[in-house]
Amino acid sequence: MFFHCTFFLRRYTRFSAFFVLASVAGSILVSLLQRFSTPLDADVTVTKGNEFEDYYLKRELLMGIYEKGFERPSPIQKESIPIALTGSDILARANKGTDKIAAFCIPGLEKIDQDNNVIQVVILVPTTELALQTSQVCRELGKHLKIQVMVTTGVTSLTHDIIRLYQPVHLLVGTPGRVLDLVKKGVCILKYCSMLVMDEADKLLSPVFQPSIEQLIQFLPESRQILMFSATFPVNVKDFKDRYLRKPYVINITDELTLKGGVGVYGSFDMVDLAVAQAVNTLNSVSASKQCHFPAIFNFGDSNSDTGGLSAAFGQAGPPHGESFFHHPAGRYCDGRLIVDFIAKKLGLPYLNAFLDSVGSNYSHGANFATAGSTIRPQNTTLHQTGGFSPFSLDVQFNQFSDFQRRTQFFRNKGGVYKTLLPKAEYFSQALYTFDIGQNDLASGYFHNMSTDQVKAYVPDVLAQFKNVIKYVYNHGGRSFWVHNTGPVGCLPYIMDLHPVKRSLVDEAGCATPYNDVAKFFNRELKKVVVQLRKELPLAAITYVDVYAAKYSLISHPKKHGFEEPLRACCGHGGKYNYNLHIGCGAKIKHGGKEILVGKPCRDPSVWVNWDGVHYTEAANKRVLEQIVDGAFSDPPIPLNMACHRNL
Ligand SMILES: *[C@@H]1O[C@H](CO)[C@@H](O)[C@H](O)[C@H]1NC(C)=O
Ligand SMILES: *[C@@H]1O[C@H](CO)[C@@H](O)[C@H](O)[C@H]1NC(C)=O
Ligand SMILES: *[C@@H]1O[C@H](CO)[C@@H](O)[C@H](O)[C@H]1NC(C)=O
Ligand SMILES: *[C@@H]1O[C@H](CO)[C@@H](O)[C@H](O)[C@H]1NC(C)=O
């Protein structure tokens, strides 16, 4: 693909952009070649008197200014640069163009301390194309300085932007919504940002952007300076000025001819938006040096991440489990792989073997202590009583882990085949420890006919026990923790079928609100526990992952993710939710001496969210992983492959 677009930027200035997209070995290489012709506009030629030297700018900045083709300050530059350098707020009426962009880039670059790796200047613009153009002008002007410029807009990759922000950024150019998003995620820190520029303020103060901008201002330090540039001064601009600018210096450069000529210049760029986005991502891309190299995974959990534990102890989960991927039962309550399998795959590690699976297991890259039906708190019932919870509760899983650690090292030291089957000693501190447990602690209360309030009341006890286990693992060397919160229990067919709620308590997605409210309560409390643990365990990196939100989005917006009936089980036997407690997925009946499969799977599990009334399909698990892998659902918002970092 090749795009070439040329259009008039100003009366006498031509701007042309080339986007070259070449597909190289399956990956797209985007190179951005952008040239701005020398600004030979009337504004510059009529400038008299002032010289750039008069502003006592840094030598390197002056070099950039001259190399960019500016000989003398244009009227808008002449007015705004010296005032901006004094730290004053400015409201400037100015038309579009490179010289206007330079009028705020120059003081911005001058004020940045390049040895201080924090965001010091933020430039907000209404469109991606203007963000790109602005960053390009700032980069060119600052090319002899060691100032890092970053662009972020709604079309750049959130993942790339998050990763990019771990590297030094001094000047950030972006659209308000995205910048606010990054600020709220805690990755974009504005407390050292002393200059905020709002370009095309009349457009920025449209109802779409204004609330975001007002929120953003709250994150700036008290001593912030705001520069507003606008082609017109409508009421919203004046109003904003009165509320947020402090004794602003008002610049009113008018050039009616230019104003008319400039209308509609931006915005004709949409067709290359993708190219712009990719070009920006390329500019923002960073080295892979911050990636963690997890040599192993140790997982703790319930059926959401059981890869064979319960099957090893209580008999195999029979067909059709495993049919989509393994083509035979594989110890998973799923048609294929689980989230933990996709995590392993993403980290380049083998799928985890269950600790309890003594035949054919290879633990060289980790082990899985999860079993279906596990709870955090030990239950007082057995698997065959109400609800059917696993005896391998989290405390038991920890004991197994502890034993595993000690015994694997003993055997590894014997050499031979043990060396290839068991993890190295150092893997216990380098590994990723994943946790997905708690859902059954909530469900067990419902099976004991407790009210949601009664269940809520014991959540603190459940979480106190969870917290202890994380501490024990830490004391055994664990450092990187990836903690899934609990999913929307109230959207699961088995809960809705067995414990139906009144119509008025069903949400717009069709889920039972009371159960989801308890899950959300559990998650809020879990998050608090994670915050406490971060304080108590100084060397631990603990990532809290909002799996609830990722799963709920599959159920509330199934079409968007390629799914059809999110509330019915793919594999089951009739009823509103295709779920029947007594005739589960894979159940058979004897009829006339013949076995007949009555708990049948749907034809195409890849378009179903729910597999058997309790568990998600492989397709849904894959979608969940895709959503969470880049950190968009995490606190802190770091990607999976960076989860070893405590402070980024
Ligand atoms: C700016 O200048 C124009 C033209 O001289 C004038 O009409 C307008 O009122 C001025 N605006 C302000 C805010 O001073
Ligand atoms: C099991 O019983 C003990 C003793 O009565 C009680 O303290 C504990 O909370 C019970 N556990 C659960 C999960 O109900
Ligand atoms: C165990 O798995 C590792 C990594 O996949 C492999 O290198 C090793 O040879 C395996 N051991 C055996 C005995 O198969
Ligand atoms: C819960 O209530 C149902 C219906 O009233 C009853 O059949 C069941 O035995 C009760 N379960 C427990 C654990 O009390």
Account of the protein in words:
The chain is α/β, with parallel strands linked by helices and 648 residues long. It folds into two domains: 45-269, 3-Layer(aba) Sandwich (Rossmann fold); 297-549 and 616-642, 3-Layer(aba) Sandwich (Rossmann fold), CATH 3.40.50. Strands 6-7-5-8-9-4-10 form a seven-stranded parallel sheet, with helices on both faces. α7 (176-184) packs across α9 (210-217). The model is unreliable at 1-49 and 256-288 (pLDDT under 50). It binds 2-acetamido-2-deoxy-beta-D-glucopyranose (4 copies). The site of one 2-acetamido-2-deoxy-beta-D-glucopyranose has 4 residues, from loops.
Give a quick set of tags describing it.
Rossmann fold; six-stranded mixed sheet; alpha/beta; 2 domains; 648 residues; binds 2-acetamido-2-deoxy-beta-D-glucopyranose
Explain briefly what this protein structure is.
The protein contains 23 helices and 18 strands. The chain has 648 residues and is α/β, with parallel strands linked by helices. The model is unreliable at 1-49 and 256-288 (pLDDT under 50).
